Amino acid sequence: MILWILNSESGVKLLYKSFLKTDADEDIVSGFLTAFHHFSMTEFHQSLESIEMGGLRWSYVLEQEYNLLFVAADNKRVKTEILMGRLNVIKNAFIKEFEQVWKKKGKNWEGNLNVFTPFLKTIEDYYKQWEQAENLTDVADFFDILGVFQQILIILRNVLENKMYTKSKTIILNYIEETYESLKNRDEFKNQPELRNISFSKESWYNFSDIDLIKCDKELIIKYLKSILIEIVSALKNVKGKNQCLKYFNEEGIYAYIVSNMKLLKDLNLDRFFLEHFLLI
Q1: Could you list the residue range(s) of the whole structural domain that residue 105 is in?
Q2: For residues 83 and 143, what is the distance between their CA atoms, to the nearest angstrom?
Q3: Is residue 32 in a domain?
Q4: pLDDT value at position 24?
Q5: Would you state the pLDDT for residue 204?
Q6: pTM score, two decimals?
Q7: Are residues 154 and 39 in the same domain?
Q8: What is the pLDDT of residues 172-213, one digit of tens each?
Q9: Distance of alpha carbon 194 from alpha carbon 191, whole angstroms
Q10: What digits encode the pLDDT tens for the residues 134-167?
Q11: The domain boundary residue, chosen from 90, 117, 144
């Protein structure tokens, strides 16, 4: 997150704080933001609230009564409503703390700007709270993702147990075992300690144990699990054919599971992956 608190009339920067690595000159950007605000007010008769620019998501809050413009920028993965909410929290805290300063200065922000510097600590405290909450949300999402993959793998095992004769089952399990060993030796996956917590055997199937939800590489784990599912579906399709697989998936409840959990899958960005691979598109 990058934050500016500006005098909306003069463009003077009252405060600036960046939690992101950036080479941008804060004073040049401050002037640009003020000019951009004035342009939107002139052309559209209102301040723009949000825009995507330079690979970042930007949010603006204009407080006309105090001639203040609050601007925040963050990665696009941060939703607009979250960024706007955080910006409003900072706006309210700033006005609460410095309203008397504004009045004493004759309803302007000119003069010694160092008076605002202690508020940087307040911004940092808020940011730490938001980071902690964000980490908890990420962990909760990752826990849900692991749960989805575990459930799908259980259903796929049921397909093998309930729909396959011994010969087909043996061929498929041998293929899955070979691809499991092959996956572990891919350059992107080998020497990755966290992947050791995802094990496979013909007898006990896939097992997730002791995955550290906080320290592990979430994206790597998800990519690995997707690769496992792709190989399992490929093995089933190669041995039993596409139409038979569609029948088995339906009878064992894969489609019912996907439909009943579609909102969750969309929230976790897994809906398209599962639909494409289990519809055998």
Answers
A1: 2-117
A2: 24
A3: yes
A4: 57
A5: 87
A6: 0.58
A7: no
A8: 999 999 999 999 889 888 888 888 888 899 988 998 766 777
A9: 9
A10: 776 777 788 889 889 989 999 999 999 999 999 9
A11: 117
Low-confidence ranges of the chain (pLDDT < 50): 44-45
Among 103, 135, 100, which residue's Cα sits nearest to residue 218?
Answer: 135
Tell me, yes or no, whether 76 and 162 share the same domain. no
Please report the sign of the dihedral spanned by the C-alpha atoms of residue 62, residue 83, residue 80, residue 23.
positive
103 shares its domain with 180: no
* Same structural domain, 45 and 149: no
Closest to 121 in 3D by CA, of 92, 82, 87, 94: 94
CATH number of the CATH domain containing 7: 3.30.450.70
- Identify the domain boundary among 117, 143, 174: 117
Together in a domain, 139 and 271: yes
pLDDT at 23: 61
Quick one: 103 and 164 in the same domain? no
Same domain, 149 and 269: yes
Please tell me the distance from the alpha carbon of residue 236 to that of residue 152, in angstroms, as a whole number. 14
Tell me, what's the pLDDT at 82?
81
Among 1, 35, 32, CA closest to 17: 1
Please tell me the total count of domains within the chain.
Answer: 2
How wide is the angle at C-alpha 105 spanned by C-alphas 100 and 110, nearest 5°? Answer: 120
**Is residue 128 in a domain?**
no
Instruction: Point out which residues pair with 56 in neighbouring strands.
Output: 53, 75
Q: What is the dihedral of CA 275, 138, 70, 3, to 10 degrees?
A: -120
